[in-house]
Amino acid sequence: MKKTFNIVIAGVGGQGLVTLNQILAEAAKAEGFDVKTSELHGLSQRGGSVETHIRFGDKIYSPLVALGEADLILGLEMLEGLRALPYAGKKTVFLINKFSLPFFGGFSEKEVLKKIGTLIKTRKYLVPASNICKKEFGSEVVSGIYLLGQAVFKKIIPLKPKTVLSAIKKVVPEKYFELNKKAFNLSKNG
Amino acid sequence: MEKKVLLGNEAIVQGALEAGVDFVSTYPGTPASEIGNVFSKIANDLGIYFEFSTNEKVALEAAIGASFSGLRCLVAMKNFGLNVCSDSLLPLCYTGTKGPMVIIVADDPNCWSSAQSEENSRAYAFLAHIPMLEPSDAQEAKDFTKLAFEISEKFNIPVIVRTTTRVAHQKMPVICGQNQKSKIKNQNVAGRFVKDVERFVTMPPRVLEMKKELLEKIEKIRQFAEKLSSDTQFSRGKVPGNLGIVTSGVSYLYVREALDKLNLDLPVLKLSFFYPLPENKIKGFIKNLKKVLIVEELEPYLEKETERLAKEANCELEVIGKKVLPEVGELKTEIVLPALIRSLNKKIKNPLEAKNKLQALPKRFPRPCPDCPYWLVFGALKKVAPEGTIFGGDIGCYMLAGMPPTNLQDYLFSMGSSIGIGHGIKKSTGQRLIAMIGDSTFFHAGISALINAVYNKSNPLVLVLDNRTTAMTGHQPNPGMGKTGSGSDAVEIKIEEIARACGVKNVKVVDPINIEELQAAVLAFLNKKEVSVIVARRTCALLAKKQSKK
Q1: I need a labelling partner for B541 at 20 to 30 A (CA). Which of A179, B218, B426, B465 fits?
Q2: Higher pLDDT, residue B266 or B302
């Protein structure tokens, strides 16, 4: 692994970004890395565009990923994944939920897909995580965990699946752990 | 020692526990809210007294009473809360504390979660002569909270720990120590107020003696700050361009990132104290430099202080700061790095130039949750309020009414101001006006404005959007809910009864699900010659969901 691994998670307030942040921080710590994250609460959480940052490695100072420095952009919603493009550099991997939360004045799904196709020039995966989770579990609430699972099993994030699963267990409420575990493991075949 | 992944705000709680805090009071405000949230969960078990106060002034005053009774106190608030409590903060610095008191103040550069202003609370250190520490990360948030208790105890003075959003909402593994037991058991009384008029009464002429004592105290604390080991200084090898950097708080982290990126080895002085500044330490640092870059967010306070000290220590020194760094918005590595290159005056390629430019995408504005009862209220107002009606906004979830597609907000200031400003507009114009205010905001600062409007014969329509909680900051209880911050039962204070007691004749409580009833009330009250109050009461949808799961 290079000195530092940088992740930007982009989505819409309420999609569970803060939980993913906590899981990744716990997992990175468990593997002995230094780690810092940044998140936003309050007004910025209310259904608007939200991004959280996670950085881990030997020694981390800033909690923020600098422009052009992301190793992974995890988009929980298509347009928001695209919005994080300025964080991407030459080797950035995009893992984007093929799912859109439309809003007044926004693009159509077709338009977003087209823009993602032309503007994102590095390695990218569009995964229908919300649809898969809805079909399998009757709820799309674990789609973030499903995407995280893919990033781990595809070895995009240099953390072991076992460690990440333990971190999920530590972070999510006990009664939801089984559901989260299922979503995480299901992503292995995705 | 155990390491735990903690949010900056959680680390502050940990620091207070390790310092043996007895008494905690707060009013929620982003980015400081989690401090109260955590205490409200753990206070009972740990035997700590905790309360959500009605506003920050009352929160500070509660802690003053506890400190005078010998308890160890923590008060937490966002930046604007410091404005609210400043009236009592200044005399507190004069009297000093008895039990130690630490005040957490969270600034929000970039206004991520703040309307009203991009306030830099550092100015209060000068105004009140209050010591102020600036942590840069979650570990320091914990360590500095503990240190602040030590300083407060040693010098009998309140101490501010000033965080910013990127510190308060930063997570990292934090080395945790042993908690110290609080003196309080099960919210029972543990302190004792011993009368001491010389100490607690600020009447003239004593008040001027107190000021003199305060200034002397600050000089003693300055000596303490000079010796502080958490002020780190790096100076390795030869200094390119004879440039050094002075910084503090989160800006320090961006400085370290930028230096690493450029593979540069410059001397850096990172300050823990913003006030009083360790002046000799700074003078020693700048003595042999040609140039110094001051890396700080918002207004150039450190820069001006360094300029002043340079006159004594090194009058040739070039002090660079806001010439290369913005005064608006937060800093980040990609802003500090080019500033550093410019200060070096050397041709170095910026390694962080954005590679991917993106045309502006349509903006996704924040908005109320899909099942939020406020939608019903906004819909009713859209339907029946006559063209030209003025909508006064206030601080809370309902300020999202100002976003598209509702656009129902014609002015927005500070807690409680929708009523005060609405009164002034009514007195000046006679135009139709609806002042919107939430339940927690009404208790915080709306009541005195309502009394003023009645007393001075004004007639705004005050619409209280009562969602039975302090929603925006994370569902903290308020006086209307019948529960205290530590979860015990309390008197449920009714807004409609307060309105009537303030002399309001036209008062109506409506569940906004009854849309027609709400519409009729708005129409009927808009034309009244006296103040009217409608309480639109329906529980926040998120809270209702949480409650039904219990």
Answers
A1: A179
A2: B302
* Distance, CA of A190 to CA of B205 (rounded, Å): 78
How far is it, in rounded angstroms, from Cα B50 to Cα B58? Answer: 13
Domain B232-344: assigned CATH number: 3.40.50.920
Residue A43 to residue B366, Cβ atoms within 8 A: yes
| pLDDT of B187 over the 60 cut | no
Average pLDDT score over residue span B116-134: 98
Task: Write down the CATH superfamily of domain B2-226.
Answer: Thiamin diphosphate (ThDP)-binding fold, Pyr/PP domains (3.40.50.970)
How far A16 CA sits from the closest chain B CA (Å)?
14
B164 contacts in chain A (CB < 8 Å): none
CATH number listed for the domain at residues A4-189? 3.40.920.10
CB contact under 8 A, A40 and B353: no
pTM: 0.97
- Per the CB < 8 Å rule, is A47 touching B472? no
Interface predicted TM-score of the whole assembly (ipTM), two decimals: 0.96
For the domain with range B374-549, which CATH number is right: 1.10.10.10, 3.40.50.970, 3.30.70.100, 1.20.1740.10?
3.40.50.970
Residue B74 parent element (H or E): strand B73-78
Q: Are B242 and B290 in contact (CB under 8 A)?
A: yes
- Axis-axis angle for helices A161-171, A17-30 (nearest 10): 130
**C-beta of residue B478 within 8 angstroms of C-beta of residue B384:** no
Residue A104 C-alpha, separation from nearest chain B C-alpha, in angstroms: 8
Q: In the beta sheet, which residues pair with residue B162?
A: B105
Residues 6+ apart with CB under 8 A from B119: B79, B80, B83, B107, B108
